[in-house]
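Fold this sequence, please.
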Amino acid sequence: MSFKIIVESFKFYKLKSDKAVKLWLVLLILIRAAVTMAPIGDRKFAFIDYYLSGEFLRSGKLVLPTTGNLIIIGLYCIGTFLAICIGLLYAEVFTLENESQRTERIRLSSKDIFMVPVKLIRQDDGMQDLDQLTSYVKKNFSPSGFKRFADKDKRTDLKLPYVRTAIKDLLRFLPSLLILIILLILVLFISSTLFMIPFFVVLFILIFTPLNYMYTQNNLARSMELSHAQTKGAKLSMFFSFGVQYIILNFIISICQLILSNYYYSYLIIEAVVFAVRIFSIARLYGLFYQILALRQPYAV
């Protein structure tokens, strides 16, 4: 299932709100190009080399980033934040578009993508094969009954309300998003001496917090609590899926860098395109996992 969902994550163009996707794609490319190619600031981070080389331990002299370094750091922070926002918009629009396909009971076919963490299946039921497991899931698990648009609401046939709804939800979520980012940054710093393990654990515990806040309209604390429950038993699968996706895209970047080693700006343009694809692919994979794990709704390929 993991490879199937990874392949599906790259089909980011499969959205009814196609005009919004095209606009976001252009915006992401422009944002990345501006961040990497803008002729401002100082892109030579000498202070990092100074500390990594161990010179600080010998001299004891404190070297701070230059004003130009701070400009570039700020530029990357703004670009990353905007990319996160666009990714969240995509993920919610994806969820909103698919909620009309949710039924009262789970229906599974050979083409559907679905998963149930093993921890949620009782050991005394004695699963022998896939058919028994499928039957067990249908009997014991039900999709979420929550929907932002009622089935009889004609607006569900339109594209615009999804995008408009997602934008409103994102604007409402922005203060909480900043709090969540600060929390994760603090965990990141603490985890730097522990091989980043605590960071990834916390990240995948809280991964559904944004959509729990935006889509199901819970407060931040409740969204975090729900995310912890929704990801139970599935964190490793998600980590594996996002990891494989990351490796595939990084391989493409490495090939482009090798081929275009003498054409720096050409490489940066292609890298900006791949960056946009990366954001959409991550957002789609995120939306798929949210639909499958949090909403208990199979995704029909």
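The first strand starts at residue 112 and ends at 113. The two ends are 12 Å apart (CA to CA).
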